[in-house]
Each structure stands twice: as C-alpha cells, then as structure tokens.
C-alpha cells in the first residue's frame, strides 16, 4: 500500500509543485473541493484592490478606456480559449453558466428549426447538473421541443436518432466524475443530423479540452471552479464560428450590439461571439477571474493542461487505491469510473448499507478535521444507481500527494471511531 513517505517523495519530484505557491491556502486545511470553488490566488486581492483604489477610485469612468475595462470580457475570454481549444475571439466571458446555456440552447433550437424542422427533441442525462436541465426544460417549452433524459451513458447512442435536435451534455458529470468522449459523441450526433452543446463546468481548467478539434457546436463553462475566479465569477460562452452569426441570441442587451455607444433604438447584433454578451460586464469579478485563469496559464511552460492532466490522474489513482485499501472494509465504495480515461479530476465515494445514509455526516466530520470535500444527495428510491455521494476534487495546481494520503487517513478514522454519529454532524446546513 502507498505510504505517506511515498507521497512526500512524489511531491518533491513533482515539476508542478511550485505552482502551489500561486495560492493563499489556509493553514491546517486539506482542500479537496476545487471542483466546487477554487482556492484564492495570491495575485487576486492586490489586483482587485488596484481596480477599486486606482482604476475606479481615482480614474473613475475613464477606466472604461484607460484601463481597458470594456475589453475585459474578450481579453479574459481569449485566455480561457487557450485552455479549451477555441480560437482567438471565439469565446467571451459573461453572465452565469445558466444564462449562457439559455443563450446557446435558444440559438441551437433556432438553427435546428431552420435546418431540420422535423426534429424536436433535446436529449440530456437525468444526472446532469439540475440547472442545465431546468434551462433546457424552459427552452424546450418556448420552442415546442421535448426534453428527453437518459438514465445511463449506454442509452445515449440510441437517442441519436432522426428526432434528435440537440444533445446537451456536461463533459464531466458533476455527480460521478464520468468523462464523456467529446469528439466521438459530437461526431456521432452530427452524423445523426443533430447539434451538440457541451457544459465545461467540471472540465475547463481540470483537463485538456479541444472544442475545435472535436468540432463542437456550442460550449459554456464556469469561472469559479477550476478557473479559480472566486465565488460567483463570470462564466464563459463559445460558439463555433459557423454558427456564431446565424441568429440573434435571445438576450439582446446593449453589450451585444454592433455599436453600443451609438445608442440607437434598434438592435443590430455584433459580429461573432461578441453578440453573446448582454449587459454591462462585472469589472471587479472579471479582474479576479483573470487572475485565476493566469494561474493555469502559468503551467504552459511545464506542459500546460497535458501536464496538469497527468498529475490529476496520478492524484485520483492514488486516492482510489488508498480509499479501497484503508476504508473498503468499512463500506466505502467507488462511485466514479475506475478507468482514468473516463474520469475527470474528481473521485466520488459512496457508503454501502447500513451506512448508505451517513454520507452527509461523514463529510461534515471530515470538514471539522480540516479535510474539505462535499456531499451530493442521491435518489432515495434508487440508491443502487444513484447513491449519496462523498465528492472530492483534485486540482493539480495546488493539491499534493500528501493531501491525498492525509484525507484518506482522516476518512478511515471518522468511520472507525464512528465520529460521524455526533449530533453536530447530523444537522443539515443550507449549502452542502
């Protein structure tokens, strides 16, 4: 079995280890929740303070020009594009993931109705992140489409039929960490005559993404997870250039206008991806997001996303091996794919009966010990298929191999001592 000394050696030999110093990591905290909220980059506080004190405080409205505020959505978007295989000026930062998904779903529905009017089905996974399903349900109703949800990955091929208009998937499933084959599924969908929308919330900044190489149609993604942009950071939206100018996006705000400062009463959409902006950009949040994206770009001289992915696989493999060796007899089960090629940068564990309802309390007990993961409730009627999940994210920029070892040791102790039974760990918080 892997020892803590083995992990210390791997950290010493890790060429990416120096990137950890880009972050303010609280002492005594073993943070394995970067898939929900990334750690604060050290550069962020100073940069945001500069925007507040000098650009806003001293230069005031002039900073839209002198500090380049007006260009930030495209500037930060071009940096993210380097991480997800998009071209220059094809991706823009704006709004939230939910809002951007609404934009591209609406655009895809319009394209489908124009090119293949007989198609009226949007397909996604029942286990997709709920906001994606809620937005898809709304768009389906507006356009006279039907939202069809598949229960398993194996059901997707049969759904790629003559009725399909849009396949909408999150590349890395938030519950299980399952990683879809973007290129293969996009090709199969196109062969069936359908469009594909990818949510990159759990893949952008965590693993290599190649939107253009996969010939994807649309993509959206999150700024506050692996991109380290801070709570509520702006999201991003991408359209393949062949689609970008075919239709208006539905939220035709002034920042998506071809000439917003001409203040004309009629709307003329801007060229390309710029039309996917809507209202005034959030400059403080965008400035923080840029700092977060820069922490990932710092890895480019060391191999970039390929190097980060290699370390991510090593971290998750070590975590799985230790979890099964130390906690398998205590009922811990792997709920993520065992094959690293089918797994994102997270590992999900579940507890076998009679402990299958104890997951929330176990996670709270771990948090009290300084090991930060999170919990996602399953389906009480179908726990064999959709169990309660103890979820752990691995961010190669700052997660160490000793963090993996320590986390499993704490998990072993929480289960062995039944510490999770304490009443304080069984009180439900608003956010899990």
UniProtKB/TrEMBL annotation:
It catalyses: L-kynurenine + H2O = anthranilate + L-alanine + H(+); 3-hydroxy-L-kynurenine + H2O = 3-hydroxyanthranilate + L-alanine + H(+). The modification N6-(pyridoxal phosphate)lysine is found at residue 225. It comes from Roseateles toxinivorans. Homodimer. Keywords: Hydrolase, Pyridine nucleotide biosynthesis, Pyridoxal phosphate. Pfam families: KYNU_C. Its EC number is 3.7.1.3. NCBIfam families: kynureninase. This is Kynureninase. Catalyzes the cleavage of L-kynurenine (L-Kyn) and L-3-hydroxykynurenine (L-3OHKyn) into anthranilic acid (AA) and 3-hydroxyanthranilic acid (3-OHAA), respectively. Its cofactor is pyridoxal 5'-phosphate. The keyword Hydrolase applies. It comes from the Bacteria. GO terms for molecular function: kynureninase activity; pyridoxal phosphate binding. PANTHER family: KYNURENINASE.
């Amino acid at each position: 079995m892997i020892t803590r000394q083995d992990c210390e050696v791997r950290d010493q030999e890790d060429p990416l280890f120096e990137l950890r110093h880009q972050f303010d990591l609280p002492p005594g905290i073993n943070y394995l929740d970067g898939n929900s909220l990334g750690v604060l980059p050290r550069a962020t506080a100073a940069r945001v303070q500069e925007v507040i004190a000098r650009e806003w405080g001293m230069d005031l409205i002039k900073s839209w020009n002198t500090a380049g505020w007006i260009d930030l959505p495209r500037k930060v978007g071009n940096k993210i594009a380097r991480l997800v295989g998009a071209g220059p000026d094809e991706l823009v930062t704006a709004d939230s993931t939910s809002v951007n998904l609404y934009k591209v779903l609406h655009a895809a529905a319009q394209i489908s109705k124009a090119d293949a009017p007989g198609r009226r089905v949007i397909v996604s996974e029942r286990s997709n992140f709920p906001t994606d399903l809620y937005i898809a349900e709304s768009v389906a109703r507006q356009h006279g489409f039907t939202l069809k949800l598949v229960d398993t990955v194996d059901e997707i091929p049969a759904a790629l039929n003559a009725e399909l208009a849009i396949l909408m998937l999150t590349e890395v499933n938030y519950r299980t960490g399952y990683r879809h084959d973007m290129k293969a599924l996009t090709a199969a969908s196109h062969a069936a005559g359908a469009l594909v929308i990818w949510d990159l919330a759990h893949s952008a900044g965590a693993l290599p993404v190649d939107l253009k190489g996969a010939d994807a149609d649309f993509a959206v993604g999150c700024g506050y997870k692996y991109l380290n942009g801070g709570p509520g950071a702006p999201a991003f939206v991408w359209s393949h250039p062949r689609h970008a100018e075919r239709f208006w996006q539905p939220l035709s705000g002034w920042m998506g206008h071809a000439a917003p400062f001409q203040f004309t009463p009629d709307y003329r959409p801007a060229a390309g991806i710029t039309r996917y902006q809507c209202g005034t950009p959030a400059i403080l949040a965008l400035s923080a997001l840029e700092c977060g994206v820069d922490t990932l770009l710092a890895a480019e001289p060391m191999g970039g996303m390929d190097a980060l992915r290699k370390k991510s696989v090593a971290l998750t493999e070590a975590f799985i091996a230790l979890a099964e060796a130390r906690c398998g007899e205590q009922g811990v089960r792997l709920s993520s794919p065992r094959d690293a090629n089918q797994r994102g940068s997270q590992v999900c564990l579940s507890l076998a009966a009679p402990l299958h309802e104890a997951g929330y309390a176990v996670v709270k007990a771990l948090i009290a010990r300084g090991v930060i993961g999170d919990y996602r409730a399953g389906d009480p009627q179908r726990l064999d298929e959709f169990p309660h999940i103890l979820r752990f994210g691995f961010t190669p920029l700052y997660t160490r191999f000793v963090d993996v070892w320590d986390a499993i040791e704490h998990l072993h102790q929480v289960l062995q001592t039944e510490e999770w039974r304490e009443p304080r760990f069984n009180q439900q918080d608003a956010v899990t």
